[in-house]
Design a protein that fits this description.
Number of strands: 12
Strand order of the largest sheet: 3-4-5-6-7-8-11-12
Helix content: 40-55%
Number of helices: 13
Shape: globular
Bound molecules: flavin mononucleotide
Largest sheet: 8 strands, parallel, barrel
Structural class: alpha/beta
Strand content: 15-25%
């Protein structure tokens, strides 16, 4: 079966993209991913060096109580790589692999986004994913002001690089469809739905805030499935599904809903990198059973564009799901 797919104008041999994580920070793992059927790889995020400096200067407890979620993200998973090492990884991956290499950037202060994006493009990345992870905890900041931060970051990066840009976002925006179309309007070539933020918990014996990192579960994919099916064809950019995709059939669902690609992370932590081969086989088996010879042939067949009133369609599904439930 022909599984070639286009994502942000790049040609991918399969629609399986390895998501940014601790797994995508070493060249030998990247090679194994490519050999196992990855269509592209998003490198682990480069976090603003300032952030790691803050980590070093401040006691763990002080940092933890002030920024527990960010601490978890950065320290617990040890995602920070020095910028030079990161740029070298991009160059080496490009030299050794034939699939697209997508860099990932997560900054705090506005000036670094554009600066690092420029360096990443110069290092040879095929595309860049902006991992904008803002926790809207400031009560003085409105939803619109938070959205403006995303727009500013995207516009600043767009102005300095020609690279295809993906924006990885969370779920909590008051009007997700409007926000998504604004991002596309400002130059996003793809949206990654959705980023998963790590939660905090409280250890009542030690009386401290602790991070919780539960692995994703199958049902986690439903949220991305809904939004991909709602947005596909309505906004003029590619959609990548992320969160809870672990089987080839999960990938098929997302593609039917209109995703250009799916991103896989937890499933590879749990089953190993070679799990990608099984996912490819499952997609292949499904395509044979349903007489589909290309991804383009069935992609988006079940998106909601067919319905001119998606709100009513959603309401109908809601009522269908609840009626009969006691
Ligand atoms: C250990 C770990 C490290 C991660 N590191 C990053 C990262 O550096 N940048 C990023 O954008 N997302 C990161 N993520 C989030 C994943 O890319 C992905 O969006 C999320 O795990 C949901 O997908 P999944 O259900 O397939 O795991 C990380 C996830 C895990 C589990």
């Amino acid at each position: 079966m022909d599984m070639t797919t286009r994502y942000m104008g790049l040609k991918l041999p399969t629609p399986l993209v390895v998501a940014s994580s601790g797994l995508t920070g070493k060249l030998d793992s990247l090679k194994r991913m490519a050999d196992s059927g990855a269509g592209a790889i998003v490198l682990k995020s480069l976090f603003e060096e300032q952030l790691s400096a803050v980590l070093k200067q401040t006691s763990e407890d002080a940092w933890m109580s002030a920024h527990a979620e960010a601490y978890d993200y950065v320290a617990n998973f040890q995602m920070e790589l020095e910028p030079d090492t990161y740029l070298r990884l991009i160059a080496e991956a490009r030299k050794s692999l034939s699939i697209p290499i997508i860099a990932s950037l997560n900054c705090v202060s506005p000036r670094w986004w554009a600066e690092y994006a420029r360096r990443i493009e110069a290092a040879g990345a095929n595309a860049l994913e902006l991992n904008v992870a803002l926790l809207p905890s400031e009560s003085r900041r409105s939803g619109q002001q938070i959205e403006e931060i995303y727009y500013r970051i995207l516009s600043e990066v767009r102005a300095v690089v020609k690279l295809p840009l993906a924006v990885k976002i969370g779920t909590q925006f008051s009007s997700l469809a409007n926000f998504a179309s604004q991002l596309q309007f400002r130059g996003a070539n793809a949206l990654v739905l959705f980023n998963r933020f790590y939660q905090i918990d409280i250890d009542v014996e030690k009386m401290r805030v602790v991070p919780t990192a539960r692995p994703s579960r199958g049902g986690d994919a439903n949220l991305a499935l809904r939004w991909i099916s709602l947005l596909a064809g309505r906004i003029d950019c590619d959609l990548a599904a992320s969160g809870g995709v672990s089987r080839g059939t999960d990938a098929v669902k997302m593609l039917l809903a209109g995703a250009a690609v799916v991103q896989v992370c937890t499933a590879l932590y749990q089953n190993g990198i070679e799990h990608l081969k099984q996912m490819v086989e499952e997609i292949d088996g499904w395509m044979k059973r349903h007489e589909q010879s290309t991804i383009a042939g069935f992609r988006g067949q079940l998106r909601q564009l067919g319905s001119d009133q998606p709100e009513q369609y959603e309401r109908l599904q809601y009522i269908k799901a609840l009626v009969g439930m006691e």
